[in-house]
Amino acid sequence: MSVRRNGKVVNKPGRRSSPTTLGDRLAVPVSSGYTLRVHRPSMQVIRAINAKALELHPDPEPPVQTVEAVTGVVYRVAASEDDPAFAAANKAYEQGVERAQAARAEYLLDYVFRERLSVEGYETDEARAALVAQYAPERAAVEQYGTLPDDMRDLDDWQFVLRMFVVADAVDYGAVTLAAHKAFDVADVTEDELRARVTFL
């Protein structure tokens, strides 16, 4: 179901769904009543963004121990589970991997919000400016009564409205995150889609 807002048809607030298959799967209705679209990057862009994310947020080194051979050469080998210090070192390693993965996911999501995400019906600069103006009173209230994190204060007007008011709750963010990961999944292409592309060409 949809409603009109500022002369544009948008989804009725409260109705949303998760992305589905190639094409429409990247359309994400959100609780604020808008429909977002995550635009799939090229494979080369995907590789470049993933490489940068890994460069900025690499996984930690796994636990190792040093072993001195009879020749006097010291080797670094994987830590043994029999080593009393292994459990603590391995737990710290696993936590470090989780933090790195979360940081890479956050980097990817920030890229998608800035470069690959649009709001249906608000693709032009004029339309985006109108939406920013529509939320100006709410933004002023938030800035007056709330404390914003540094990463929100540094956003431009469009990104602020997009992340604060258009993508309104945790379920919305989860749906956008899911669409972003699907857009970056180069293996997520079906045989039927490949056939359709070849036929089209």
Give the low-pLDDT segments: 1-9, 11-17, 19-24
Q: Helix count?
A: 8
Structural class designation: alpha+beta
Give Rg in angstroms. 23 Å
SSE order, as H and E? EEEEHEEHEHHHHHH
- Structurally, the number of domains stands at 1
The outline comes out as: flat
Integer average pLDDT: 81
Distance between the termini: 36 Å
Short description:
This protein has helices at 43-56, 86-116, 125-134, 136-145, 150-153, 157-166, 170-183, 191-200; strands at 2-5, 8-11, 27-29, 35-38, 64-68, 74-78, 117-119. It is of the alpha+beta class and 201 residues long. A hairpin with a 2-residue loop joins strand 1 and strand 2.
Strand-helix topology:
Layout: E1 2-5, E2 8-11, E3 27-29, E4 35-38, H1 43-56, E5 64-68, E6 74-78, H2 86-116, E7 117-119, H3 125-134, H4 136-145, H5 150-153, H6 157-166, H7 170-183, H8 191-200
Antiparallel strand pairs: 1-2, 3-4, 4-7, 5-6
Features:
201 residues, flat
Could you characterize the architecture of this molecule?
The chain has 201 residues and is α+β, with helices and mostly antiparallel strands. The chain has one domain. The protein has 8 helices and 7 strands, in the order E-E-E-E-H-E-E-H-E-H-H-H-H-H-H. The strands form 3 sheets. Strands 3-4-7 form a 3-stranded antiparallel β-sheet. The chain has a two-stranded antiparallel ribbon with strand order 1-2. Helix 1 (43-56) packs across helix 2 (86-116). The longest helix has 31 residues, at 86-116. The chain is flat, with a radius of gyration of 23 Å. The relative contact order is 0.16. The model is unreliable at 1-9, 11-17 and 19-24 (pLDDT under 50).
